[in-house]
Design goal:
Structural class: alpha/beta
Low-confidence stretches: none
Pfam family, one: ADH_zinc_N_2
Number of helices: 12
Organism: Flavobacterium hibernum
GO molecular function: oxidoreductase activity
Largest sheet: 7 strands, mixed
Distance between the termini: 14 Å
Radius of gyration: 19 Å
CATH architecture of the largest domain: Alpha-Beta Complex
InterPro entries: ADH-like_N (IPR013154), ER (IPR020843), GroES-like_sf (IPR011032), NAD(P)-bd_dom_sf (IPR036291), YIM1/Zinc_Alcohol_DH_Fams (IPR050700)
Shape: globular
Helix content: 25-40%
Number of domains: 2
CATH class of the largest domain: Alpha Beta
Protein name: NADPH:quinone oxidoreductase
Strand content: 25-35%
CATH superfamily of the largest domain: Medium-chain alcohol dehydrogenases, catalytic domain
CATH topology of the largest domain: Quinone Oxidoreductase, Chain A, domain 1
Order of helices and strands: EEEHEEEEEHHEHEHEHEHEHHHEHEHE
């Protein structure tokens, strides 16, 4: 099968198109013929080696964390899926590889594709929707009438998180460029702040939770918009010792993460704010819940561009440019 892979970590080198064997199907796996794959900044960060300490992959590596397609084979223990099912998934770490024609995925990480979405729309959903779910439902435990600040509202995570937070009954503030204001208000954002010309920490106060997806400077500013007892949840780092413990990281990684996160953890503690780092996990069960919201029209995908499979490197460059509004997808079939 055809696949785009990396042979070494590099920021500049493009993905390599190669012919590789179709994956073997384990007893608990489904083999999916990929119709569309979503791209994420996580793919770029893995490609550059940014996550090699906490995700030590063997190279060569096929990238890709989002998939929509059709089941073509099932393992002997699979009970929830059959050949011909239309599915979508975010495969678990160390089993990624959606930039290819086929992928084998543990059935626990797979869900039936929402009936009201195209393959391209479905491929845009898993990673960002699971991230939003795990931040807002699991960690922040958002309740009605709470105030939630979601950074970078026009990004892949932001567009879904705004919709989910509004469904949970929260008041939502976000940041974006002015050309995205109308779109984000249509998605449910109550307050949209022009990140180029305004300081959000001067406009917002007494918030219950922040979803941080930006740099260290923005992370520290976010501490100032939270009320005492609020939660600052970052998906862009720095990772914490607790995360290292949960990930069973080597001892030296635990020490490194403790050091790089010590500053923000200290400041958060002084303000009585709970700081945590989230590296989202695959979950077919949570995807099923998200599917229900999608089919009810509560969450809608936001797809910026769809590229052909042969345009994978162009698509990756577009994601890395930061210009994408919503998700970028490649189409295989």
């Amino acid at each position: 099968m055809k696949a785009f892979l990396i042979n070494k970590y590099s920021k500049k080198e493009p993905l390599q198109l190669a012919n590789v064997p179709v994956p073997e199907v384990g007893d608990n796996d489904v083999l999916v013929a990929i119709h569309a794959a979503g791209l994420n900044l996580l793919d770029s960060k893995i490609k550059s080696g940014e996550f090699k300490l906490i995700l030590p992959y063997k190279l060569p590596l096929i990238l890709g964390h989002d998939v929509a397609g059709i089941v073509t084979k099932v393992g002997k223990n699979v009970r929830n899926f059959k050949v011909g099912d239309e599915v979508y998934s975010r495969p678990q770490d160390h089993r990624i590889g959606t930039f290819a024609e086929f992928i084998a995925i543990n059935e626990s990480d797979v869900a039936l594709k929402p009936k009201n979405l195209t393959m391209e729309e479905a491929a845009s959903i898993p990673l960002v929707a699971l991230t939003a779910w795990q931040v807002l439902v699991e960690k922040a435990r958002v309740k009605a009438e709470q105030k939630i600040f979601i950074q970078a509202g026009s990004g892949g995570v932001g567009t879904i998180a705004i919709q989910l937070a509004k469904h949970l009954g929260a008041t939502v503030a976000t940041t974006a460029s002015t050309k995205s204001f109308d779109t984000l208000k249509d998605l449910g954002a109550d307050y949209v702040i022009d990140y180029k010309n305004a300081d959000f920490e001067k406009s917002l106060s007494n918030y219950d939770a922040v979803l941080n997806s930006q740099d260290q400077k923005t992370l520290e500013k976010s501490l100032r918009v939270l009320k005492s007892g609020g939660k600052l949840i970052s998906i862009s780092g720095p990772p914490t010792p607790q995360f290292a413990q949960e990930a069973n990281a080597p001892w030296f990684v635990k020490i490194i993460l403790a050091l790089i996160s010590s500053g923000v953890r200290k400041k958060a503690k002084q303000l009585n704010i709970d700081y945590s780092f989230l590296f989202m996990k695959a979950s077919g069960e949570q995807l099923n819940k998200i599917t229900t919201l999608i089919e009810a029209g509560i969450i809608k995908p936001v797809v910026d561009k769809v590229f052909p499979f042969e345009g994978m490197n162009e698509a990756m460059s577009y994601v890395e440019s930061g210009r994408a509004k919503g998700k970028v997808v490649v189409r295989l079939k």
